[in-house]
Amino acid sequence: MRKGPVFLGKAHIHWCEECNVPLISEKCDIHGKGFRLDLTPPADVRFAFKKDIEFIKREFKQHYGVDIGEIIDGKILLLNKTPGEDDVYEIIFDGYIFGWLRFDPLELKWKPGLKVEGAIALWKHFGKKMRKWVIVDKGAKEPIKKGANVLPVGVIKAESSINIGDDVIVVSEDGEVIATGIAKKSYEKLIDKEERGTGIKTRHQKTISYREGKTAEMKDVIVANKSALENKVNEARRFMRRTVGNVNRPIAVAFSGGKDSLAVLGLMLEEFGEDFAIFFNNTGIEFPETIEYIEKIKRKLEGKKIKFIVADAKNAFWSAMCVFSPPGRDYRWCCKVTKLGPITLTIKRYYPNGVLMFVGQRKYESMQRYKQPRIWRNPWVPNEIGASPIFHWNALEVWLYIFSRKLEYNPLYENRLDRIGCFMCPSSSLAEFQTLKEEKRELWEKWEKELKKWKERFGMPEEWITHGFWRWKELTKGQKAVARELGVKIPEKRSWEPIRYSIERENERVVLKINTKILLGRIREVAPILGEVAEEGDLIRVDEMVFTEREVKAKSENEALQAYYLIKRAYECVGCGVCVGKCPENALSINAYTRKIEVDWERCIHCRECMEVCPLLKIKNPQEGSQL
């Protein structure tokens, strides 16, 4: 669970009151200085699309009983994703935070709420026609404005649909909206003067900045921000030009089909025009619309001296599932199998001497990326130097650039999808999976069908799927709390290990046994990884280890474990290629037919570096080695 503010950069924007549009700097190009609007960090704010606005109207109407289109239609509306138990979006227009939508991870539904400014707007437009309001006597007005809770004794009237837990607005008897809060009692008890205890727990809001602005369009936003945006663009282009001058390598752009990589592609076209490559990693679990969009971009750029390269994972994810079980936030084998491996192999093929890859990474995306330098070497892709021209941009600036250049963006963004990537990514929130169910039902059903198989194998309850517990291999403290609140038993840790082992001492030797036959033919293909190989009848000797069909004898427990790891790699290899890229001697390759690793006996120097990067060992068994 994400709690508390996460500062990854400035946590505010500015707003031009005359234009009624957001500003990415302090000044509007038309009217001069705008006013500052503080947001909840990290403040990676974005524009709302048509479907976002329809969704907001729907949820607010279900709760408050009125169509807020009367208030928001024709306005520039922003969404700010904030930390919470699941997704929370602040809703911003007219230069103030109107309210929010919060996804409840227990009830699996969206719950709207209002800031005092939003409550003022609704009360002004709808009054008692709306739902979820309470009117208090004038004696309670000042204490409540200072942060006091509402007691039933002070309630004059209340709207009859109020239930415990509802977000409500508090109005004084003179008609002034003075607070918003959460109902701690239902309607019947709120209006009972004899009832004791808190009726509504109010939110203390120090300042209130309600205003009504005029309608505006995207072209107004572009005009107001033109100078500031061009400063951003020019800085990014200078960075790219300088980096290319300092790094003597061919250049490429990593293009995922998402907004950030589109912005970097746009900058590449502006700065270099051509003579670079577009690099797309098809993970095999992309949205179909993303594949179609990528193809469309490829066709549009035909005729230019731009090479289009695809690192294709094909069916690797689905093939690897039987080996790894479903991925998790703490079990990201999927990234190694569908991204790192194919990318490593493809870069090695097309750029044996290295490549400078411009990437759409931004510090606002996560704490890990915030701490990362703007130019970096990828330790797992030795031939790649990465660089991010838009590292300091927020999402508002990215979208403003895209709209200002009229770049064709992925249509999925218009389907309420906040980010574009693998459709079943375990890092997705429950809210994002809810959106997937609504907008792309067939994809959710495909993934749900797979999860149901694993639910049965692990003996999990239905909530393992519905409430997203599958997204962890080992439950966090927060997830354990959710399970307790739901009243379901979820094992703290799930484990899937088809190949199991035991180690015993036999005189001076250590004996390794596994739960299946040791296939010496397959072991022979990978044995040089551990040392010099000698074949002697029905056994294979690797340095001081002896492999037979029944067991492995080794000198020490550590060497026995290394033999077990080798057997795992031999049997369970999914052909991701991570080790191929890491091998300093180019001794490893992926068999085109079996999709498993093989070792060139002449080249292998037994350094075992490939053992340090294999996802089977470093992701699947993190207790037996450091994670990638």
Description of the structure:
- The chain contains 21 helices and 29 strands.
- It has 628 residues and is α+β, with helices and mostly antiparallel strands.
- A six-stranded mixed sheet has the order 18-17-16-19-21-20. Strands 22-23-27-26-25-24 form a six-stranded antiparallel sheet, covered by helices on one side.
- Strand 28 (588-590) and strand 29 form a beta hairpin.
Provide a quick synopsis of the model.
This protein is an alpha+beta fold and 628 residues long. It is 33% helix and 21% strand.
Mean pLDDT: 93
- What Rg do the Cα atoms give? 29 Å
Distance from first to last alpha carbon: 23 Å
* Number of H- or I-type helical stretches: 21
The strand count comes to 29
Characterize the largest beta sheet: strand count, sense, and whether it forms a barrel.
6 strands, mixed
Task: State the main characteristics.
disordered C terminus, six-stranded antiparallel β-sheet, alpha+beta, six-stranded mixed β-sheet, 29 strands, 21 helices, 628 residues
